Amino acid sequence: GENGGGTSEKFTNRLAKEKSPYLLQHATNPVNWYPWGEEAFKAAAEQNKLIFLSVGYSTCHWCHVMERESFEDDKVAEIMNRHFINIKVDREERPDVDKVYMTFVTTMSGSGGWPMSVWLTPDLHPIYGGTYYPPNSYYGRPGFTTILQALAQQWTSDEAKIRRSGTAIVSVLQKNSNLPKVEDTTSDAPPHGEVSAKCFAQLARSYEPDYGGFGESPKFPQPCNLNFLFAYYFLHPGLDDAKNGLDMALHTLTMMSRGGIHDHVAQGFARYSTDKSWHVPHFEKMLYDQAQLVHSYLDAYLVTRKQEYADTVMDILQYVMRDLSHESGGFYSAEDADSLPTADSKDKKEGAFCVWTHQEIHSILSDLSVGEESGSSTSVAELFCHHYSVVKGGNVDPHKDPHDELKNQNILLQHDTIQETAEQFSLSETQVLTSLSAAREKLFQFRLTRPRPHRDEKMITAWNGMMVSAICRAGAVLGDRAYVARGAAAAAFIKQHLICRETGQLYRAAYRGDEGGAQVTLGSHKNPGFCDDYAWTIRGLLSLYEATLDQRHLVDALELQTLQDQLFWDTEDGSGGYYSSQQGDHSILIRMKDDHDGAEPSVNSVSAGNLLRLSRLLDRSELLQKCRTILRVFSDKLRKIPVSLPDMAVVLLMLEEPTSQVILSGDPESAVLQELLGVVHSFPQPNRVLLVAPPSDDAPLYTHLPSLRLYQPKHSTQAQAIEKQSGGTKDSKPEVEDTRSGRKDTQSGASESDSREEALESGKKDLQSGSRDPHSRVQDPPTDSSHVIESARAFVCHNFVCSLPMTKPEQLRKNLE
User: Fold this and answer.
1) Same domain for 520 and 639?
2) Where is the Spermatogenesis-associated protein 20-like TRX domain (predicted)?
3) pTM of the entire structure?
4) Mean pLDDT, the chain, whole residue set
5) Which of 123, 202, 276, 753 is the 20 to 30 Å CA partner of 572?
6) 701 with 754, same domain?
7) Domain identity same for 140 and 256
8) pLDDT tens column, 298-317
9) 137-171: pLDDT as tens digits
10) Same domain, 320 and 461
11) Helix/strand/coil for 689
């Protein structure tokens, strides 16, 4: 922020020593800001002052507004400095602090958001709070200075009463945060059919049919809801509810892509729309939104095969790789909504970088023509203005522009489909596509001459893991190895810069170094990672494994899962589930368990999904048990309001539905096996377990799944040794020991149908006794000597029965269909 009221620009407060872009924005405020930490707590105790806690993030529009109106004002700052110890927190650096006090604010007022403004006793107990406050009172709403003076007076006159109030509030928050112990809940998670049906019904009630999405305005993308709707359809394509849910998801994604929330010139999506039609966005762009929407549009592409959805995926990734990428491989957090309209401007405006006047469009595109061969007199500018709803007076409703920042401006919004625009101007669709593409590129180049919005160059571990998962899956589904390579580079960045070499534990965030370039720093605090940092990094590594079949990523994921369990799993009171933060920070009054899938899925939802996948990939029953425990811990919420945990509802759905195993045998780097892998990824299968049996004898999966060696390519010395030891030949089956039940299967000489019957019957017995998970045991391959010498083979297994080996992509495709 810039100083106001004549304060010397040389003045800096304690935030000048921080690395957080948000804290640095406030380093020249006349407010004596402290970062969250012992120095501030000690000052509050010694001076016996209330604490004013302000929480936000660097790309938050209303945070900027409150800074301009209050924190840059000398008179307001004087009141703050005289009566309070003032603390600034970047919510993205310290989500634990944000979570505790946001819970208080939402409990007290019924709503929350940022900036968050909370007043605390020196013991850090909250006593009053809200979000944005204007500097002065109006329309009966108290202004910021009024609240400051009133609380200062109350503290002076009745400190004991305020302290008692704070203690009581913390007690209530603690009580409300306690979840039922597992032994106090039903023995099992709620029935998945009941939860799925209720989750769909609750989503359907809030669905807005005209433009898609949920609720009226403001309207957020809410990818968690879309995740559920797609998974529900993929696993139950015959259900009417699932079909209706699919239509809801597809319509939402189509309208979002056409709307102003989508940046049609520089790609990517804004955080939310201020109206129901996705037209007028809040222009900030967040990395976590881009990552989640990649998955949503990939799901839409897989189920429809419509290129427009794949194009949107590539659009998002173009933005992320171009504008949110650090030279060393990490991903930046966000881009701001506000920027200077021109280099000479003094005041930033929301959306200034992204909007256009009608005259600008015609001037910039004046030298572009549709093409003489078309025989059309239509100009590209005219075509563009029609297609993207550009008009002379601007296309923004004044009611959606309270500060007149968008007056006479246009936010690009697709008016028609390509086909409709082509018909309107008697052009071919190819001519329209070519002309619009040329126009967008020209406008993009012009936009580069404008002052850019602020970019938050903090690289958060959780969001980097989230993006690794998205970009690797995109590479796998779309067959683009460049995406997979970019995801691998980001995973390597996490490993190099965000993991402590001594302990293996994660840090929360890294920052661009002071010298710029590829330099990276952790800052002076080196904040330890939170549970979501572990969960999302694990998720990213699992996606990287599935995209590359490199088992090292699976090993890394398991190691991080073990650490996550040690640091965050609730072992204290028998409840189970994951706390969001580690134990031992006395400044965090309440260790909380995230129980809401909102702008991001809750860490318990993400972790439950990770545990389920790892348990099936590695045949680890203790991980499966943890997954089931999480579902039991949150069973009450899943039963009553599953719409608050749609991602967890997906895990419950997957847990109870049959899985398929796809086993690829061969060299993961070979072109033949990569082609088979591409076929696997071209089908939407949420409950697929993807395993690889490579030639290498020391592949990690063989340690976890000894029976997987049966699929090892036959030239392997280890496979030959197993065959020789069991007296097998290339036409017979070796004796296989089930390492979990102690049972041996001797299938030599048995007919294929006998073998299948025995496997199925044995599986039923194991299931009844609870001795194994039906979804994780590697099934024995059927004998077919004509295929054993192939360089790459695929097996698909269902219900303890595996297909004959397939070597041709079309064979595998037909099987998966």
Assistant:
1) yes
2) 12-173
3) 0.89
4) 89
5) 123
6) yes
7) no
8) 999 999 999 999 999 999 99
9) 987 788 999 999 999 999 999 999 999 999 999 99
10) yes
11) strand
